[in-house]
Design a protein that fits this description.
Length: about 250
């Protein structure tokens, strides 16, 4: 049994829900989304893919996790955006392990925030939960940072050549801040040689966000979100900080 299979078994035992991997393909030229014709909980996923807010998040992500319990059953959907599959080539187990981390936290009672603003909820949850997921995936032997660095090295190379980037929509701004916080809290310069260049580009483009990121990182860095009361405080602090940028 692989490390990923072992973790899946642990999660399903604790949560009583089933992990279901859903690959979402983008069909061109129609620009429509397609999923497999049959799998457990397909009707639930079909409903989600008819929601504009969910689709907007998915097309900007490599993967999303959806925990569902209802008449159809209890499922943990790990949804892969196959339009970006080239980004994780050779790193799929690490990407899946990262998503399993989100499911595992939910099964352990570390719930994601539920806000009316889905983008705020996603960014807030990611910033705090990724601290714990980085630790847990590393403990289980998954090298998620290698995938993260490859994606962001590619992004940095492309974006460094763009002199006038498009203005960010509010949701995009929150997602950029979540990535910024990952780099701030997850790496040292020795662990990622391009870390400072990444920070310099973001700071040049979004100087108004620098004090927000720095203050939030300073608040989170010395705290231990494994402590459940600290976890809740971290979600609250992060949501407040992100809300000030909207």
């Amino acid at each position: 049994m692989t490390a990923l299979e072992t973790w899946q078994e642990e999660i399903e035992t604790v949560s009583a829900g089933r992990i279901v991997l859903v690959r979402v393909e983008t069909v061109q030229p129609e620009n429509t989304l397609r999923i497999a014709p049959a799998f457990p909980g397909r009707a639930v996923m079909a409903r989600l893919l008819r929601q504009d807010s969910f689709v907007r998040q998915l097309v900007q992500a490599h993967a999303l996790t959806v925990n569902y319990s209802g008449a159809e059953g209890a499922f943990h959907f790990v949804v892969l955006n196959e339009a970006r599959a080239a980004d994780w080539e050779g790193h799929e187990p690490a990407l899946l392990a990262h998503e399993y981390g989100h499911v595992w936290l939910a099964a352990q009672g570390y719930r994601s925030p539920a806000f009316d603003d889905a983008c705020l909820a996603t960014a807030t949850g990611d910033i705090v939960q990724h601290i714990l997921i980085r630790e847990e995936t590393a403990r289980r032997g998954f090298d998620y940072p290698a995938f993260w660095k490859r994606v962001h090295d590619t992004w940095l190379s492309k974006e460094s050549a763009v002199s006038e980037p498009a203005a960010l929509e509010p949701c995009q701004r929150l997602l950029v801040m979540a990535e910024w916080m990952d780099a701030t809290l997850g790496f040292t310069n020795g662990e990622w040689p391009n870390r400072e260049a990444y920070f310099q580009l973001l700071a040049a483009r979004h100087p108004e966000l620098v004090p927000v990121v720095e203050a939030l990182a300073a608040w989170l860095r010395p705290r231990d979100p494994w402590d459940r009361s600290v976890y809740q405080s971290a979600l609250h602090q992060t949501a407040q900080a992100l809300s000030r940028t909207l």
